[in-house]
Amino acid sequence: MGGGDLNMKKSWHTKTRANMLRVAEEKRKAEEEARRIANIQKELHEERQREELDVLNATVTKKSINKLDWMYNTPASHQDKPQSNEELEEYLLGKKDVNSILAQKDKEAEQPEAKWKSGLFAFSNRNANNERDTAAKAMEDPMMEIKRREQAAMLSMRRSQGQDAGADKDRDRKSKKKDRDSKSKSKSKSRHSSKEHRSKKSDRARGPQSPVA
User: Fold this and answer.
1) Biggest CA-to-CA distance, the chain
2) pLDDT the model gives residue 31
């Protein structure tokens, strides 16, 4: 009897050629998947670095990344400026009136509000200009011109149909009136003829009258 491992003939043995090829194929797939994941991670890392660099550049150049920041910005609050030593000294010595200082502060407090209102007016004016531009572009659009012509044709057709319907109603009204007039005339004629017939009949019934001597 020849020697040898009988388990080598089993399909589940790890050293059979088919199983060794299958293991090698799985290892190759695992290596390819690992390389693909590494490439994706590298791309994500590079993209994150680019975003951080863009943020730094925007901070340095004072450019806003989010274009909608103006919606959330509030008007800058007024901060009192520190008074100089000369103004304090004049106030303490009575050379400068307190009312003038308060009036100056009120005037300075109104300046940011006026600036904010002017900026708001400029923004609304820009929106109005954009609306006018949009309306002008819509007027120049050939598709809009075609739609306007179609609407005008439909309106003209409806008006003509309404006029035709009104003319038909007038004709019907006139014909009905004519029929009523003709019927009334025929009735009046029949009444007149019946009266004449009754008068003639009564005359015949009375007979001829003898002359008075």
Assistant:
1) 187
2) 94
